[in-house]
Amino acid sequence: MAGKRISKKERERLDRIMQKLNQEYGSDFRCFLNYETPWQLLIATILSAQCTDERVNIVTKDLFKKYQSIEDFAKADVKELEKDIHSTGFYKNKAKNIIECTNRLITEYHGEMPSSIEELTSLAGVGRKTANVIRGNIFHEASIVVDTHVKRISNRLGFTKQEDPVKIEFELMEKIPKEQWILYNLQIITLGRSICMARNPKCSECFLKDDCNYYGKSKNLDKKP
User: Fold this and answer.
1) Is 196 within 8 Å of 152 (Cβ atoms)?
2) For 97-145, how does the pLDDT look when each residue is reduced to its tens digit (9 = 90+)?
3) Sign of the Cα pseudo-torsion (108, 112, 116, 118, in order)
4) Measured CA angle at 154 (ends 91, 28), to 5 deg
5) Catalytic pick among 94, 129, 151, 211
6) Which residues 6+ apart lie within 8 Å of 60 measured at CB?
7) Are 44 and 62 in contact, with CB atoms under 8 Å apart?
8) Domain containing 209: what range?
9) Integer Cα distance of 16 and 22 in angstroms
10) 148-157 and 213-223 are packed helices; what angle lies between their axes, rounded to 10 degrees?
11) I want to staple 101 with a disulfide (CB 3.0 to 4.6 A). Which of 112, 124, 203, 207 is the partner?
């Protein structure tokens, strides 16, 4: 897509960051949520809202044994499903959305997962983040998923100053090469969990520190008397 004009210096910095991310984390596509079918990934991603992937994987290990088909979720008792997913948080809304979502997949899409962003976001409990997870992992459609890590680190790197996830998504798509979109999601999540945490980031240990606006500002503040 057409992007905003980026200076040669900024383009070189951005390219260095992408190269460093690929060198550090590799260029293999992988998903942090465990799943075997498209509908399992959809449910796992709905559960991941305001919850860690690790917790979701613990819950879905038993959940997908109990509910073995999309039809099982569609006809689930909402109170029982709430108990099954309680530890993921916001379980009432999630249970309600999962049942509504799977019912609609059956009645309108014959149990098949739609691929367009418009169709996916029309499903209960599915926003752009969830839709892009499905599009990237199931249909291999390049997309940028703006979760808390991507939002925080993209701001720290100076790729965006936006706070709204949708605006961040489109701004990153303008700056980051399309072939890097899915990798960027995975790499930034890994970086956010291990080094660039929300609190007490390990800036001095970060392989991106020389190209990071946040680290540069923190160093300058430290130098002030």
Assistant:
1) yes
2) 999 999 999 999 999 999 999 999 999 999 999 999 999 999 989 889 8
3) positive
4) 80
5) 129
6) 33, 34, 35, 40, 43, 44, 47
7) no
8) 8-28+146-223
9) 10
10) 60
11) 124
Q: Which of 94, 147, 151, 211 is catalytic?
A: 147
User: Which tokens belong to 140?
Assistant: 């291999």
> Domain check: are 57 and 87 in the same one?
yes
Phi-psi label, residue 170: left if phi above 0, alpha if psi -120 to 50, beta otherwise: alpha
Residue with tokens 């379980």: 91
What is the value of pTM for the model shown? 0.81
DSSP SS3 for 1: coil
Residues 168 and 90 in one domain: no
The yes-or-no answer on residue 129 being catalytic is yes
pLDDT in the model for residue 4:
58
Averaged pLDDT score across all residues of the chain: 92
Measured CA distances, 121 to 113, 181, 219, 224 (Å): 12, 20, 42, 48
Number of domains within the chain: 2
